[in-house]
Amino acid sequence: MCAKHSYALAAIQAVGTEVGIDPQTAAVAILMGIRDYFVRFPESRVSEIHLIASTLNMYEDYLNVFKLRRRTLSQLNSYELTMFGKSVKLILGDITDETADAIVNITNTELNNKHGVSGAIFLAAGDSVTEECSRIGPIPNDDGFVITGGGNLKCEKIIHIIGPKKTALIITAVEKILQVCEQHQLSTVVIPAIGTGNVLVDVYSSISAMLDAIEKHLSYSPQSSLQEIRIIAFTQYVYQGFISVFERKNAKGVINKTIRHTNVKLKLGNITDETADAIVNINDRTWRKSSGISGELLAAAGESVIEECSHIDCKATIAVTEAGNLKSKKIIHVLASKLIAESVENVLQKCEALTLSSVAFPALGTGGHGLEPQITITLILDGIEKHLAKHPQSFLEEICVVTFCEDVYMDYSEVLQNRFKDPQEINDANIQISPPEYWADMVIDDKVKKITLLVDSEEYRNIARNFIQTSDNTDIRIVKIERIQNLTLWRSYSIRKIQVDKKNPYRVNERHLYHGTSADAIRKINHHGFNRSFCGKNGTKHGFGTYFARDASYSCHSVYAAPDENKYKYVYQALVITGEYCAGQESYIEPPYIGEDPSADQYDSVVNSVHDPIAFVVFNDSSAYPEYLITFTR
């Protein structure tokens, strides 16, 4: 209003206890409101604002807040939780007052946003940063971020990233920010409340997405350089909304265990907040249960899902709907049953059919059936293990069990920890390594056994589908797929995996990757594995190791998969222990050390790009197992 009438001076009555508000709280709110205004309207003609206190006590309360403001509003309101040994702080304040290795600027593609928090950052950073951004030009689509100096801010770097417009994109943005920090070995980073400005993502979705991304990153990065991650809430409203989610996150940690190649997670929380591909809803015969967790889940999903449920066949025992307002892609509705392990298997089978990579279960059986938590989690784990044993090529990367009750969480965690105790000591001679359950029987004299898969088997279909989908070539004709069974190689690989899993307990250490080869190398690989002594035949761009590709299209190239006289080409689908990786260099003959201390651990592999790894290089011959040989033509 003052600006509208071109007033330069404004006087505001200070409020406090006479209207039921604590004076210090009121003072902070007024200061934040004034700051918000000038960030949004930097060209305002208002040059002076007076706050009028009606009593001496009110004056002293406001004065104390103003003195604190000179140190930084960040110190007035903050909340901290610990994730995987790292500090994650929520602060109410001005991001331009923060001191850190890096400050994140959520901006536009052209790097010239003069509004909101981004405008405040550019203004405070000064002309040097503005000029650097002008020289860089628009943010490239392939990276989605640029890095500049800190200018007048109290940071070494500013990470500029395009503002995400959806909750799912917030997760992607935060993951990218943290990866950049790791690449530059930064220990502190400050991130604004993403999506709560002009994009208007609700505050709960925003902070939930940010914390989910931070949690995921830290769980997979036990050697993270980051020691402190700060999230800055710009207004009291956003801060209060964020606090409620922080408090819920701070209630308990997250437990991760690996079953075969799938991460099984236990967490305390509300299943409606989950971002998994699918959320499981335990329903009744009406398929529209209105009570308990099911009722809460359907209410959160919205009317469109309730309407979709009304069309489910009443004789069905499992059904899939869209997720509505939830953050997942699908809801898998399953009929409540005491046969918990069987229900879990049915749900996971449905996930495989839909090629989903993650699913979240509630605490099955602890509601209406009244079963003891120790029994229900045992049955849930039985179902998970049984399914994964039947599906060695499972699409599922993560299975999460979410409980809202702390007592149930404690019971579940005890069973989970005892069931999958980490090995305390690795003694190669005493380790009993069993072959995979899906292998065909072998006698002691069998050094190598090749099993040609049946075309109509699920094992064949899964391998063929992944191969063709990532080959980018619909003209490929698969001649046959053979499973390679080599007990000696399997034992060496399994021992290596135990070692890496112990070193990196919260990371996905194993991947299915591709390796193209020629016909004359097949017998050597089947009997002796991938030998890095032969590296250099097709280049050593990222180091002198054995190369594997995320996508079959890379390995199918004739440079790697040279056709034989019948025009047949050969690509292995291999199990590869990638562990913790870094960017490779042509001079590497082994992975570099993590940090500068030679007594520290080495990286387990190197890649072409830490942000989007496509090529992986391992330097230990036991780090890869030639699981399947795919013979094909074009």
Automatic annotation (TrEMBL):
Pfam families: Macro, PARP. GO terms for molecular function: NAD+ poly-ADP-ribosyltransferase activity. Gene3D superfamilies: 3.90.228.10, Leucine Aminopeptidase, subunit E, domain 1. Signal peptide: none annotated. GO terms for cellular component: nucleus. Its main location: nucleus. Residues 435-634 form the PARP catalytic domain. InterPro entries: Macro_dom (IPR002589), Macro_dom-like (IPR043472), Mono-ARTD/PARP (IPR052056), Poly(ADP-ribose)pol_cat_dom (IPR012317). It is found in: Nucleus. Its EC number is 2.4.2.-. Keywords: Glycosyltransferase, NAD, Nucleus, Transferase. Belongs to the ARTD/PARP family. This is Poly [ADP-ribose] polymerase. The gene is LOC101731886.
